[in-house]
Amino acid sequence: MSRRGPENPSFSELVSAIARAARAPRLLVASDFDGTLAPLVGHPSLAVPNSLAVSALHRLCGMTGVYTAIISGRPRASLHALLADIGPELEIIGSHGAESPWAIDWHARDFDLDAARDIADDGARQLPGSWVEQKPAGIAWHFRACDPIAAGPILAQVRARFAHVRGGQVVPGLQVLECIPQGVSKAFAFEALRRQFAPGCSFFFGDDEPDADVFAALAPGDVGVAVGAPRPGAGWTVASPSDVACLLLQLADERERWNLSRSPR
Ligand SMILES: [Mg+2]
Description:
Layout: H1 11-21, E1 27-31, H2 51-61, E2 66-71, H3 76-82, E3 91-93, H4 113-126, E4 131-135, E5 138-142, H5 148-162, E6 168-173, E7 176-181, H6 186-197, E8 201-206, H7 212-217, E9 223-227, E10 236-238, H8 241-262
Parallel strand pairs: 1-2, 1-8, 2-3, 8-9, 9-10
Antiparallel strand pairs: 4-5, 5-7, 6-7
Helix pairs in contact: 1-8, 2-8, 4-5
The structure holds magnesium ion.
């Protein structure tokens, strides 16, 4: 499951870290969605969350002192539809943090969404198989199904043009390039969650470039788990969303035992 490396201690250490973290009186469990709770697929509309991960999050949501959240680049409405079974306690943050109760007023940043859209449309015209997704707070140009050699120069061109969009910032991802309002970030959303819930320990699971800032924001004793490839700040790396599901189930089991041990008999 986990891979060893300088930033990646053994799996037994991860199991111990989860057991230790599960005993924090207030615990924040936050995760990305695509590539982390759901395997990456050719089109976002085809993604299905791992059923064991959903079940574990459902259990965690109902536990005393546990706060759960999804922080994703997806539109919030799409996350709500995919995770409806988990329950209203799950905090769902979409559009890289732009869709959350604590989001910055990005409308005031004068983000030129139309310019970003035109640039992405140009990219899609030049690269067959790529396509453009308009989100509530940004534009995503997807090229997952495209020839990577053909994509290279067009990607460089779109990236350079996105960088000049008024009020915007470029967010690279796995076979996707996005232009979103300046100041919006998953790390900002994660910090807002921490301020809201004041956890003694936080978990974060993520697989992609936009998750890197969240890993960097973790405090000593927090648990950061990268999926697919190691990320700076993530203490552990696992191979797939199935592994994330196993870890969430372990966390749910540990927390349940700990809560039971503290309840009056
Ligand atoms: Mg992801």
